[in-house]
Amino acid sequence: MTERVAILGGGTGGAVLANNLAERLGPEIDAGDVEVTLINDDPDHVYKPVWLYIPFGQREPADGRRPLRDLVDDRIDLTIDRVTAIDTDGKELALRDGAGPLGYDYLVVATGSTLADEEIPGLAAGGHDYYSESGALALRDELLSMTEGHLVLSVVGTPHMCPAAPLEFVFMADDWFRKRGLRDDVEITYTYPIQRVHGNPHIAEWAEPIMGERDINVETFFNAESVDPDANTITSMEGTDIEYDLLAAIPPHRGVDVVDEAGLGDRGWVDVDKHTLEAEAAEDVYALGDAATTGVPKAGSVAHYQAGVLSQRLASEIRGRPATATYDGKTLCFVETGMDAASFVEFDYENPPSPAPPSEKLHWSKLAYNESYWLTARGLL
Amino acid sequence: MSTIDIEPTDTVDARGAACPGPLMDLIGRVRSASPGDVILLLSDNDQSLTDVSEWVDETDNELVAVDESDDDYGFYVEVA
After folding, report:
1. Cβ-based contacts of A224 with chain B (< 8 Å)
2. Taking each helix axis from N to C terminus, what angle separates A360-377 and A300-318, rounded to the nearest 10 degrees?
3. What pTM did the predictor assign?
4. Measured distance CA(B30)–CA(A22) in Å, rounded
């Protein structure tokens, strides 16, 4: 009997997992004993870290897009469609376009994050973001022509993709305006929902003095309640108003609705065991990357490492052996601290991050990895 | 055993979540709550003891009780 693996989502987690399974289970796939299907509603794979550079005119959306078919092993069945329902009892997926439900024996939910600007009144009209292609392009139009005024970076929603990116944006903006002789005319303010500048206390402790040295205003305990696009103000639940000339916001994030409808979790995030990545609410269902509530950042490195673990676990299950591979929380991030310097952090469930001293070498390492990312998506790096 | 006699309007179970997850879960629920609602936040993270009270102090909401009688903490927050 053929064992069917369905991977829902072709982002970093889904693509790396598909390629890893093709390599690991190649003989079984070739023999027809295993089928791996990757379902994505976009024919392209999108590498989101490119978006941070778009507002500064350094990258284009096309730099972060490649056809999934070019990246995924030929042994993987690639289905471009949207899953409209998950039946975890009947082990079936309903497809928007495809004929009939798609059955599975093992399901991996890798549906990632979506933006929910509509949760904050006025945010869509008054704010910009670099967490989407369209947002990054619109922000670029504003930022490239900004020569004076108040630039506000507000972290509105948490958890959000790439927790370091808000820090990176203000560090880069500071350096970018400074190098162009405009910094005295551009005030920069950073807001964060809790009492420090980052969710992780070790990273916050590292970043806060840098913000002080760089004259970046900090407003903590700022949970945006509304934005007034006419008055150019953002107001917090705590009662603080900030006037802005340009608002770059990290919008609230959600997963996808089918997760909630299937009873797998809330707001589109799948409740999982943070070591095995098994869904808590259903048998033979797993989740990884942004979609999985493991408590670690919603970051590509997390999805990448989790995909390696899940590939081993699925191969063990399919071969009837005990699955022993577990995810230890490993996370790795380069953190830009300007236009030509970066730091680096690595941590897991047990070991906290200790940011490396910023250097030009780490900046180039980040850019080099962004280029070689396509090897990661192919399962080679 | 708890001696707190408050019937919460809603409960947020953030046990198992790493910091600042419990506080953010609470803030998320307060966003959609009505004035007078009492939200019970369950957390097993020691950091919540300072996170929650510091955030409530920044707002007009009120921390009406903290249950420390079991292994987990229970924070009762009345929404302004």
Report:
1. none
2. 30
3. 0.96
4. 46
Residue A13 CB partners (closer than 8 Å, separation 6+): A110, A112, A288, A289, A290, A291, A303, A304, A306, A307
Alpha-carbon distance A238 to nearest alpha carbon in chain B (angstroms): 5
CA A295 to chain B, closest CA, distance in angstroms equals 6
The pLDDT score that the predictor gives to residue B1 is 56
A295/B59 Cβ within 8 A: no
Query: Rounded to an integer, what distance in angstroms lies between the CA atom of residue A374 and that of residue A351?
Result: 29
Tell me the shortest Cα–Cα distance from A303 to chain B, in angstroms: 18
Angle at A179 between CA A48 and CA A220, to 5 degrees: 60
Interchain CB contact of B15 with A (< 8 Å): no
Instruction: Tell me if B74 sits within 8 A of B67, measured CB to CB.
Output: yes
Helix (H, G, I), strand (E, B) or coil at A212: helix
Q: Is beta strand B73-78 parallel, antiparallel or unpaired with respect to B62-67?
A: antiparallel
CB contact, 8 Å: B1 with chain A?
no
Query: What is the Cα–Cα distance from A250 to A246, expressed in whole angstroms?
Result: 13
Query: Residue range A93-102: average pLDDT?
Result: 93
Q: How confident is the model at residue B20 (pLDDT cuts 50, 70, 90)?
A: confident
Q: How far from chain centre, in Å, is Cα A29?
A: 30
Find the closest chain B residue to A296 by CA distance: B18
Using the Cβ of B77 and the Cβ atoms of chain A, whether some distance falls under 8 Å is answered with no
Q: Which residues on B lie below 8 Å from A225 (Cβ)?
A: 31
Which own/partner pairs from A267-270 qualify as long-range (CB within 8 Å, at least 24 positions apart)? A268/A111, A268/A114, A269/A293, A270/A109
Mean pLDDT of all residues in A263-272: 96
Contacts by A175-179 with C-beta closer than 8 Å and gap 24+? A175/A338, A175/A339, A175/A340, A176/A56, A176/A339, A179/A339
The secondary structure of A273-327 as a DSSP string is -TTT-BBSSSTTEEE-GGGB--SS-B-HHHHHHHHHHHHHHHHHHHTTS------
Q: Is B17 on the interface with A (CB under 8 A)?
A: yes
Tell me, yes or no, if B35 comes closer than 8 A to chain A by beta carbon.
no
pLDDT single digits (tens) A150-189: 999 999 988 999 999 999 999 999 999 999 999 999 999 9
- pLDDT surpassing 90 at residue B38: yes
Q: What is the DSSP letter of A369?
A: H
User: Closest chain B residue to A293 measured between Cα atoms?
Assistant: B17
